[in-house]
Design goal:
Blueprint: H1 8-15, H2 21-33, H3 35-54, H4 63-76, E1 89-92, E2 95-98, E3 112-114, E4 117-121, E5 131-137, E6 141-142, E7 146-148, E8 152-159, E9 161-163, E10 166-168, E11 173-176, E12 185-186, E13 190-196, E14 200-202, H5 207-217
Antiparallel strand pairs: 1-2, 3-4, 4-5, 5-13, 6-12, 7-14, 8-11, 8-13, 9-10
Helix pairs in contact: 1-3, 2-3, 3-4
The structure holds zinc ion.
The site of zinc ion (ZN) has 6 residues, from helix 3.
């Protein structure tokens, strides 16, 4: 069961088109896995549509008629579940993972391996410098203690991982920034979607060497 969701504010910003393409893609991918947030998104989109169509005419048109028109338009709008997609998979360690529909058409670069961690970047134009990637952690894998110079948004697509604050399973999202320090690890392995807008900053052990790695996996 999904326990960690994006905030209502983040879903509203996504519906209003105010988020970066990378973050918007990640929110869409979460809503595809989460019935609760998918309904929340549909409700916000309905409210926005009513506001958009009703606002310019409120002074000179009867409100009841506008409501009828808006209702008809919303009824005719196809929902995400009604759209058919060809399934897209990525393969790593001889295992295929199905990607969410939100990621069906975005170009992918090859896998880059860093020990038990592998990273595959999406080719998505980003004006704010953020990057969207798949991050695969092998069973028993761990990322050393680090903090963030920017924001890190993680969506678990398969498997699970844990850090100092909790355990995260398929569909869960985790938001971390410079206020957090953590060391994610996975007993069974996991595939995550990450949106990061600055390199990870390692804080313990061989931090100077690890910070080169931090630039590579973000
Ligand atoms: Zn949710």
């Amino acid at each position: 069961m999904i326990k960690h969701h994006p905030s209502a504010e983040l879903i509203a910003a996504h519906a209003a088109g105010e988020l970066s393409a990378a973050l918007s893609t990640a929110i869409s991918a979460h809503c595809e896995l989460c019935d609760h947030c998918q309904q929340l998104l549909l409700d916000v989109e309905d409210e926005l549509a009513f506001a958009l169509f009703a606002a310019p005419h409120t002074t000179d048109t009867a409100p009841a008629k506008i409501d009828d028109i808006c209702h008809d338009i919303i009824q005719q709008t196809p929902t995400a579940t009604a759209v058919e997609h060809t399934a897209r998979y990525v393969c790593i360690n001889n295992r295929n993972y199905r990607l969410p529909s939100a990621l069906q058409h975005t170009k992918l670069q090859p896998w880059h391996r860093f020990g038990p961690i592998s990273r595959m970047r999406f080719e998505l134009e980003q004006v704010d410098g953020s990057r969207i990637s798949l991050l695969h952690m092998e069973a028993g894998g761990k990322i050393q203690h680090h903090t963030h110079q920017g924001q890190e948004f993680t969506l678990v697509l398969a498997g699970s991982f844990a850090d100092e604050d909790g355990r995260y399973q398929q569909g869960d999202i985790v938001l971390r920034d410079g206020q957090h320090q953590h060391s994610p690890h996975s007993e069974q392995g996991c595939l995550c979607l990450t949106v990061v807008d600055a390199p990870l900053h390692f804080t313990k052990g061989l931090s100077q060497v690890l910070n080169l790695f931090g630039h590579s996996i973000y």
